[in-house]
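Take a record.
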Amino acid sequence: ARWDTQLQLGPGELDRRLTELGQRLASIGKDGALGTLTEAEWRAELQVATGMDDAQTDIFLDDFWNVYLGELNVELADYFAGLRPRYRTALLSNSFIGARERECGRYRFDEMCDLIIYSHEVGIAKPDPRIYELTCQRLSLQPAEIVFLDDAPRCVAGAHDAGLHTILYRDTAQAIADLDACLRANGV
């Protein structure tokens, strides 16, 4: 709503334009979540779709990344980082072009785990079974040796179908308790 006002658009107009932009780009095989679109291309397309100038686009993208990055769940991140070196750990993310630089810059994800797989870098997104297979390959583990935590039921279902132990995140205490229980029960 703030950006609709700032760009002198009607209520919901920016969202409509962004939705149409995403649909148009997808129709020509361009997708920032699958890495078939560069940041420069996205920026240019964004400016055309919204009418923003360079200065407005810079501010908008700062807002975009602040929302995208959100707030780190420190308790869960500390727990996750503490699993090393006993366990090999990985982050598997449906991401957007530019996410690695910003997430690792702000949260140091690259320092808290052994592996990060971003959908925009590998061209595959959860729940596609190939992304779970790729994760197993890169970790040099079998599916039954991996515990997968996610807050999206469809991604948890995809990982389960691929043979991974799965946990649906509902809250931090539940996630940590379920991870501990799964690791103990399965010797994973």
